């Protein structure tokens, strides 16, 4: 059964053995099991904390949370009533359709439209579509954002990000190529620093210490590597990328983080997080990512 529709989730099964699990809550991918390009043994590629809530009571600590219409604490006037990372990851999406189901892959479309709870906090017209596609060694997740206004105004101004928790040993994982790309270091609290990006020439980024870097106008293709694994992240239209790991100093204070969870993942998050996408009525924006298990 390539597409298993359950009450609170959808399970995708690829004929070659890979699988993915998507909670309707937040359209959160909570599992992606895939063999690598060199072996067909499916292994779990994402991290979900054992303390994560999967009952819709709060955003999932792990997997691939969908961040929309704001990243981090809101800074745009349209987002002033929203909580950190916006509402998309804490609303229940609908399964719209099975887009593809064949030897090449299995693909489903989920949708989210304004409801009373959302409109109280965010009164702009929108329609979201999230297309999740499972192939033998890849998982693609594409976010389509439409301004459904009947005229050119009101404009829809937003940020968007896919908050990938990639399962990897944080003590040795490296992320490339970010050499020479300017970034904002969110581990330094002073607002002033956030207006002056840092630039480093080190060839690879590690997360051996608390890391929370927002890279602007980043390459769009990232290799996440460690001694026994490798995942490639390819992004389209997500012009920025965030690299985050709280390590013990911050991770131990996160209520739904399992003990030592910070040792078992790195967040590599394609997004549009510096500035805002601006859509007139009728316009659509699409941000895409393809995750490939290489080793
Ligand atoms: O993407 C990195 C980040 O913005 C960090 O600053 C940290 O807050 C993380 O997201 C997790 O945020 P959450 O709201 O899910 O606890």
Structure description:
- With 295 residues, the protein is mainly β.
- The protein has a single domain (3-171, 208-293), classed as Beta-galactosidase, Chain A, domain 5 (Distorted Sandwich), CATH 2.70.98.
- The protein has helices spanning 116-121, 247-251; strands spanning 3-5, 9-13, 19-23, 28-36, 39-44, 66-67, 94-101, 106-112, 127-134, 138-146, 156-162, 165-167, 174-176, 183-185, 205-206, 211-215, 221-226, 229-236, 240-245, 265-279, 284-293.
- It is globular, with a radius of gyration of 18 Å.
- The structure holds 6-O-phosphono-beta-D-tagatofuranose (TA6).
- 6-O-phosphono-beta-D-tagatofuranose is lined by residues 59, 72, 84-85, 163, 186, 212, 242, 244, 267, 269.
Keywords:
295 residues, Beta-galactosidase, Chain A, domain 5, 9-stranded antiparallel β-sheet, 2 helices, 21 strands, binds 6-O-phosphono-beta-D-tagatofuranose, Glucose-6-phosphate 1-epimerase
Number of domains: 1
Distance between the termini: 27 Å
- Cross-sheet strand order for the largest sheet: 7-8-9-10-21-18-17-13-15
Bound molecules: 6-O-phosphono-beta-D-tagatofuranose
Could you give a short account of the major beta sheet? 9 strands, antiparallel
CA radius of gyration is 18 Å
Low-pLDDT runs: none
What is the CATH class? Mainly Beta
The number of distinct helices, counting runs of at least 4 residues, comes to 2
Q: Shape, please?
A: globular
Number of strands: 21
Indicate the proportion of strand residues: 35-45%
Backbone structural class: mainly beta
In CATH, the architecture is Distorted Sandwich
Averaged pLDDT: 96
CATH fold title: Beta-galactosidase, Chain A, domain 5
């Amino acid at each position: 059964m390539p597409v298993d529709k359950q009450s609170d989730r959808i399970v995708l099964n690829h004929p070659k053995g890979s699988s993915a699990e998507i909670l309707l809550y937040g359209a959160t991918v909570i599992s992606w099991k895939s063999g690598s390009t060199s072996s067909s043994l499916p292994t779990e590629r994402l991290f979900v904390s054992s303390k994560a809530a999967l009952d819709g009571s709060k955003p999932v600590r792990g997997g691939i949370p969908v961040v929309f219409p704001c990243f981090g604490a809101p800074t745009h006037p349209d987002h002033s009533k929203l909580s950190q990372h916006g509402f998309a990851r804490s609303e229940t999406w609908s399964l719209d359709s099975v887009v593809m189901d064949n030897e090449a892959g299995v693909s489903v479309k989920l949708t989210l439209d304004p409801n009373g709870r959302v409109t109280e906090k965010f009164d702009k017209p929108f329609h979201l579509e999230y297309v999740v596609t499972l192939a033998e060694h890849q998982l693609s997740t594409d976010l389509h954002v439409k301004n459904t206004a009947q005229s050119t105004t009101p404009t829809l101004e937003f940020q968007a990000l896919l908050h990938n928790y990639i399962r990897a040993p944080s003590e040795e994982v490296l992320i490339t190529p970010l050499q020479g790309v300017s970034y904002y270091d969110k581990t330094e609290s002073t607002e002033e620093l956030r207006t002056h990006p840092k630039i480093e020439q080190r060839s690879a980024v590690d997360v051996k210490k608390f890391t929370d870097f927002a890279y602007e106008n980043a390459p769009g293709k990232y290799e996440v590597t460690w001694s026994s694994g490798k995942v490639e992240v390819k992004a389209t239209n997500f012009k920025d990328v965030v690299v985050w790991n709280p390590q013990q100093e911050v991770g131990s204070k996160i209520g739904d983080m399992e003990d030592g969870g910070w040792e078992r993942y790195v967040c590599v998050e394609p997004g549009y997080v510096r500035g805002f996408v601006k859509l007139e009525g009728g316009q659509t924006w699409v941000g895409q990512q393809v995750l490939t298990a290489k080793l």
